[in-house]
Amino acid sequence: MELNFVRTPRFYVWLAISLLAVLVVALAGSAHGQIAMRTMVAHDDDSGATQSVHDQETIRKSFTLPAGERLLDIDNVTGFIEVTGSSSDQVQVVVNKTIRAESKDKLEKARKEVSLDVTQEGGSLKLYVNGPFRCNCCCNDGCSHSDHDTGYSVRTDFQVQVPQNIALKLRTVNGGHVQVKDVTGNYTVRNVNGGIEMENVAGSGSARTVNGGVKVVFRENPRENSEFASINGSIDLYFARNLSADFRFKTMNGGVFTDFPMTSLPAHATQPERRDGRFMFRSDRFTGGRVGSGGPEIKAENLNGSIRVLERQ
After folding, report:
1. How far is the first Cα of the chain from the last one, in angstroms, to the nearest whole number?
2. SS3 (DSSP) at 258
């Protein structure tokens, strides 16, 4: 049986509307795809350049440090740093280096310009990621800048095993966390766009970041003054039992919480400054609290996030 359809003017109106709807959906899907692609490019390279060539390299090094005071200094720019203590007297370093470039020529340029500089003097070992992104200022302390246009980006991720009693000085800026485990030496840890996590540590020192949290779990409580800070992130400090310390807290958009009974301390006395013939007093705006019989001063401050002083279980 043959069916015949009669195409009325209403049919053609419906057909036109349907085609228009399909066209709108197709254009919307195409626009969404372009936005997603731009996001991926921007993620790969903040300068907005397309980086289609990449290369990966694994660097392995081993160092023997003499007995006595030991220090590991890692100065990174882009990438994470992970340090784990062990019973060995050696420092075992694994660096995964990833280069993304606009072309093969730019890739070769990156290989020549970006290096891992190693300096060992006695018990001190320094690993320094060098390149055109460094400030090279007269008072350079690992400073870097990102307003260069090299046509490539380089990421260096560190995984390091160290003697447990080594002191640490660790710095990175972009693209990664700083993680320390099972180390008993003193420490100075800095990050900018990433968190800091320290687990089963002893010793004293400071850990500061800008965008990220700070979490420290102590196997032994600090014996010297220490400080922990972030701008945008919470600070969680886990102490062993029988804690005795004097705390100083400062936060703007967050609260302070503690597992330990704490008695209030008076604000620090401020020294007057003379300016334009007048005396001026500045308040540090820290709130003080004492745990146990008091002891080393432990300072914790942030802008956005809570501060928690907890007992390690």
Report:
1. 83
2. strand
